[in-house]
Amino acid sequence: MAQILTKNLTKAQLERVARMYDTNNYAAAAMGLSCGNAFARACRREGVECPSDRTKRRKKESKYGTN
């Protein structure tokens, strides 16, 4: 069902919204999707770093650890 909702979203739209919002749930709400998982799947399909992946990457790269 999520693919039906997200197939009309462009990569540019996903990139912009992924940069603007801190969580997948907020980004999904901005795009009119039902949940953050649908937004994350759409990002993965288009090769865009979603907000949750960005947070994980930043924590991993941090010199202070993952806390």
What report would you give on this structure?
- This protein is an all-alpha fold.
- The protein has one domain (2-50).
- Helices cover 67% and strands 0% of the residues.
- The chain has helices at residues 2-6, 11-20, 24-31, 36-46, 51-61.
- Helix 2 (11-20) packs across helix 4 (36-46) and helix 3 packs across helix 4.
- 22% of the residues are buried.
- The model has no long low-confidence stretch (mean pLDDT 85).
Briefly characterize the structure.
The protein is mainly alpha-helical. The chain contains five helices and no strands.
Please give the structural blueprint.
Elements lengths: L1 H5 L4 H10 L3 H8 L4 H11 L4 H11 L6
Intertermini distance? 36 Å
Helix content: 55-70%
The oligomeric status of these chains comes to single chain
- Protein structure class: mainly alpha
Tally of individual helices: 5
Give the amount of beta strand, in percent: under 5%
Report the radius of gyration as a whole number of Å: 12 Å
The main sheet comes to: none
SSE order: HHHHH
What is the overall pLDDT average? 85
Q: Given the C-alpha coordinates, what overall shape results?
A: elongated
The number of strands is 0
Q: What is the domain tally?
A: 1
Low-confidence stretches: none
